[in-house]
Amino acid sequence: MARSLNKVMIIGSLGRDPEMRYTPSGRPVTSFSVVTRRTWKSSSGERREEQEWFNVVAWGALAEICKSHLRKDQQVYIERRLQTRGWEDEEGKRHYRTEVVANEMIVLGDRCSAPIDFSQDEAEYDEEDYAF
């Protein structure tokens, strides 16, 4: 079997406060967005900036930690993997969303004198748990 890798590491700022929900089975899941910025100078010397937004999802204990420790505009390090999930709305239209499924989160920036590292072991979940 061929090897493969799906690993994402981002450092950015929260675009909104985290939102925590519970799956039908009672498992906590927290979602939030993180923005990264890249700056460069164009060939004419003009300064340019580009933003990239990431949807982040954390499960279980990490979901609870993210909800209690993170706030909008806070700088954070997130690590794990990308996942794209699909669903059908009431009108039968198919939608897709790509998310970073986090298993490590480190609080960075001015709101904390030293980085705080939160990580969680690989935890599997059932697809029906995702219907919240």
What does this protein look like?
- By secondary structure, the protein is mainly beta.
- The chain has a single domain (8-39, 47-130), classed as OB fold (Dihydrolipoamide Acetyltransferase, E2P) (Beta Barrel).
- 8% of the residues lie in helices and 53% in strands.
- It contains one helix and seven strands.
- The protein has a five-stranded mixed beta barrel.
- Mean pLDDT is 88; it is low at 122-128.
* Largest sheet report: 5 strands, mixed, barrel
Q: Note the total helix count.
A: 1
CATH fold group: OB fold (Dihydrolipoamide Acetyltransferase, E2P)
- Spatially, the strands of the biggest sheet line up as 1-3-4-6-5
Radius of gyration: 17 Å
In short:
The protein is built from 1 helix and 7 strands.
What's the helix and strand layout?
Layout: E1 8-14, E2 19-22, E3 28-41, E4 47-59, H1 60-69, E5 75-88, E6 94-107, E7 116-119
Parallel strand pairs: 4-6
Antiparallel strand pairs: 1-3, 1-5, 2-3, 3-4, 5-6, 6-7
Which descriptors would you attach to this protein?
mainly beta; 1 helix; OB fold (Dihydrolipoamide Acetyltransferase, E2P); 132 residues
